[in-house]
Design brief:
- There is one protein chain.
- A 6-stranded parallel beta sheet has the order 3-2-1-4-5-6, with helices on both faces. Strands 7-8 form a two-stranded parallel sheet.
- Helix content is 33%, strand content 15%.
- The longest helix has 13 residues, at 158-170.
- It has 213 residues and is an alpha/beta fold.
- The chain is built from 8 helices and 8 strands.
- The protein has a single domain, classed as Rossmann fold.
- The relative contact order is 0.14.
- Bound molecules: NADP nicotinamide-adenine-dinucleotide phosphate (NAP).
């Protein structure tokens, strides 16, 4: 499986390492491919390219760019590169202004998530929200007392969600499907909640788990 990961930050690198470990062919996308020469040398089986080349490369595409840039990144290379593909959206709509008493500000509203905007922008892409509500250090092979943590996902396409479900399970997650793209209105703010102990108490080692009766 070819996995095109748009981004060069901590999330992109963490997920790239996870996909490489699983045997996938990975390309990282960035504005400045030469800036990733050290990473490329450390990961000889992976490739580095432009955002456009990476989107075209992926059978599955991962969005791991800054939330405020993701719509522009996608519009620059165009939706055709994502049409019919599973697009894992790990991005969060975080404003530039910084947290207020530990609470991150978002540029979206309670009635419209970033992933809904992306789905409207590219109607033929199969967006699935995933990995957005945990810190990068716990995205692959999370290890917590109490067993596997829960990753909340959503999206409109059932086969895309099934593919992401399999990826998450192989990375060590329990998966809860919250339904269609509108559920991103609820999932994206979980990252605000996840970050509060970090900003207030420098505590970043936790994840969500859904307990059921
Ligand atoms: N950090 C976490 O633990 C975490 C956890 C869950 C979700 N997330 C979400 O995952 C995404 C990636 O987070 P991150 O912490 O790895 O990195 P980040 O600093 O939020 O984003 C870095 C990436 O965004 C791109 N970027 C930044 N400004 C841009 C612009 N103006 N135009 C085009 N591209 C731009 C960078 O491109 P270049 O490669 O060209 O520099 C880089 O690839 C974010 O949406 C974040 O909210 C993060």
């Amino acid at each position: 499986m070819n996995v095109g990961i748009l981004g060069s930050g901590t999330v992109a690198r963490t997920l790239a390492a996870g996909f490489i470990e699983q045997g996938s062919d990975v390309m990282l996308g960035t504005r400045n491919p030469s800036g990733l020469s050290e990473w490329a040398a450390e990961h000889p089986s992976a490739q580095v390219g432009s955002f456009e080349a990476t989107a075209n490369f992926g059978d599955i595409v991962v969005l791991a760019v800054k939330g405020s840039a993701v719509e522009n990144v996608v519009s620059a290379f165009g939706c055709n590169a994502l049409a019919g593909k599973t697009v894992i959206d790990a991005s969060n709509p975080i404003n530039e202004t910084g947290p207020e008493n530990g609470v991150l500000p978002y540029f979206t509203t309670h009635g419209e998530s970033l992933m809904e905007r992306l789905q409207l922008q590219c109607p033929d892409a199969n967006f699935v929200k995933a990995f957005s509500c945990v810190g990068s250090g716990h995205m692959v092979n999370p290890s917590f007392e109490g067993g596997a943590p829960t990753m909340f996902i959503c999206g409109n396409d059932d086969s895309a969600k099934a593919a992401v479900n399999d990826i998450l399970e192989s990375f060590g997650w329990e998966v809860e499907d919250m339904g269609g793209v509108e559920a991103a209105r609820a999932i994206e703010p979980l990252a605000m909640l996840w970050c509060i102990p970090g900003f207030l108490n420098n505590s970043w080692n936790h994840a969500f788990k859904l307990l059921k009766a």
